[in-house]
Amino acid sequence: VQLQASGGGLVQAGGSLRLSCEASGSISSSNAMGWYRQAPGKERELVARIGGFGNTVYADSVKGRFTISRDNAKNTVYLQMNSLKPEDTAVYYCTADGYIPTFRRYWGQGTLVTVSS
Description:
Low-confidence stretches: none
Oligomer: single chain
Radius of gyration: 14 Å
Structural class: mainly beta
Mean pLDDT: 95
Strand content: over 45%
Number of strands: 11
Distance between the termini: 37 Å
Largest sheet: 7 strands, mixed
């Protein structure tokens, strides 16, 4: 499984960005996918996750501002980020969960999002 993330960059506070992550390999619409982030000096944290049935989970800090979605035909997950804040600055990683033969979480290479004040 390979995950290719894109869409990061520099944006002013209050602006928007959309991250994309295309999965290749043994990932289908039944696999959960998500986004994590890691800010300098902080631990990696969950941002949003979307299950195989489209159910979503968000970190409290991004609820109402970020939206995760997926295009199963393209094996791609998106993260629409609106009303960005400087504290959203981080490297964002996409993930995909595999279940066969055992659970494994695959990670993309990360894309940097920088929000200036």
